[in-house]
């Protein structure tokens, strides 16, 4: 009877946490389609608008490393209410402004809430289910957080055809507020016993380390790799991050446990996920630019283009979870990455009039492949570490995901910008007097996007090679050490 009560309690907590995660992911996907509209409305360039996504990742990258400490120091209820409050306030502010700096600040406030939410949810999932059922549990998690991308782009497109972009935030506001209220009443108070204290120097080094790297790579797309700001921030980031890692290895109670990388499968899973993240951002960033700016396709139909892929990814999540429990991550990763490599390569052969149906099919197949890789590889890596290290594992997983996303977006935007400029110069030199400048720029941008997708293809190919080294967790149980913090429900 007690076991049934604990199980029901666990599912109630998960339901509330997943609702919060759904809102956070929905908000992010709504904005991807809206970037071209925001660029026109606020009169900003692509490299500037990019900060609405990379700035979001910047805050995540700075805050997520502290999540391992926060999860052990504070209760699930305290962290959830704090995260949703920050996210809701940011959403309200974003919907009320038409000034880019204020909008960017509101997005960063949203990110501070999201940075707490996702590691918290993953930690509850990993620690709450036995290893043999984690694939199924993570599959359900995948279904929930991929349903938001499934409806996000299409909903965003429809809204943008009928209203201005602030309406996207107005839609999310009441949902976020409702989830916050539900969390307040449904999540019970917990008594947390922990002697952990945050190491202030570690916090400073972490912020400058991950923040410097994220800022440097994110700025490269607009400022160029040779600019003082990029070189300076990357230098500060590398020095601070190395100092942070050295300090963590010397502390008895580190803020982030880097010794976790001594488990080979966890280290391999992070390598595959980071490379795939960098490749995945190519379609997420470049496809809306291609279909709206070059093809002149409406935001609504741009969202419809991405809908089947997101639906397939959502539909496959629970299925992939069950397949993972049965066959392991290696087979799924090899099949999924092979499909990802192939479809990404086809995207490197776009023209100014590529068939809309071809774009839909390739985009859908690409996300089918990605759905077979992300969750199984991540879960397999976490399965290879002792349970008391799970908060550190989820924190590192989410941190490296944000860092790789920023690196990928900065790298890809930089490649597209530089290659487009190079092609424009060559085409203008060889153009006839009757050739319209707009035609030259359109063709140059298409070729620049193609080159960027080819780089993404090489990244996906590298991830495919790494996937052949994946091993399934041995059946024997890992030695479990008692966690530092103990949570008791009142």
TrEMBL record:
GO cellular component: plasma membrane
Keyword Lyase: no
GO molecular function: transmembrane transporter activity
Membrane-related topology note: Multi-pass membrane protein
Keywords: Cell membrane, Membrane, Transmembrane, Transmembrane helix, Transport
Primary location: membrane
InterPro entries: EmrB-like, MFS, MFS_dom, MFS_trans_sf
Keyword check for Cell membrane: yes
Pfam families according to UniProt: MFS_1
Alphabetized SUPFAM superfamilies for the sequence: MFS general substrate transporter
Name of the molecule in the record: Putative efflux transporter
Biological source species: Exiguobacterium oxidotolerans
